[in-house]
Amino acid sequence: MLTARRGGYCFEQNGLFERALRETGFTVRSLLGRVVLTNPTSLPPRTHRLLLVELQGEPWIADVGFGGQTLTAPIRLQAECEQQTPHGEYRLRQEGNNWILQFRHHDHWQSMYCFDLGVQQQSDYVMGNFWSAHWPQSHFRHHLLMCRHLPDGGKLTLTNFHFTHYQEGHAIEQRNVPDVASLYALLQEQFGLGVDDAKHGFTEAELAAVMAAFDTHPEAGK
């Protein structure tokens, strides 16, 4: 992710961030959450990795791996307290031992994931990561997903061939990328991915094969 500018998801990004925080002197440990962004009818498994960080004796939540709604600043572990970040407003709700992270979406609060403060083992993260990467119905197996948060508070997102530029929570540009060649260039120019890295990059032909598999899968585009 650092030298080759490759993307990643929560297990990789927050795993790396946890190590960086610990090696710079912070007290930090990972937690596991259940993603409820789509309002599921039953609780899904624990497949989201986030961080609990202690700063001057106070607990904070940090998370650099939740795509378009990623926290771009840490928030206090405090219930019913609206907290502003460079890319939106968030709050935590508490229900017994469980916490629910929400973000303000226009005129309402949308739940992102729920978690508790229980200690997890390394095997728990291995299991969650494996399930996310290999379960046939996993969202990550059927979509190319990208997000880049901008210094001015905006963000760029990509879902397969659909590119969107958001500013202050509103889409100011939307377009469908016409072909794989344009998509390959977009990954470099807009998202900064090192697709041409000699060791960890990939060719335009390899990207075309991946996108073709997405397009023909029954779950593609959903």
Automatic annotation (TrEMBL):
The keyword Protease does not apply. Keywords: Acyltransferase, Transferase. It holds the Pfam family Acetyltransf_2. It is an enzyme of class 2 (transferase). InterPro entries: Arylamine_N-AcTrfase, Papain-like_cys_pep_sf. Its EC number is 2.3.1.118. GO terms for molecular function: arylamine N-acetyltransferase activity; N-hydroxyarylamine O-acetyltransferase activity. Belongs to the arylamine N-acetyltransferase family. PANTHER family: ARYLAMINE N-ACETYLTRANSFERASE 4-RELATED, N-HYDROXYARYLAMINE O-ACETYLTRANSFERASE. This is N-hydroxyarylamine O-acetyltransferase. It comes from Citrobacter koseri. The lineage of its organism: Bacteria, Pseudomonadati, Pseudomonadota, Gammaproteobacteria, Enterobacterales.
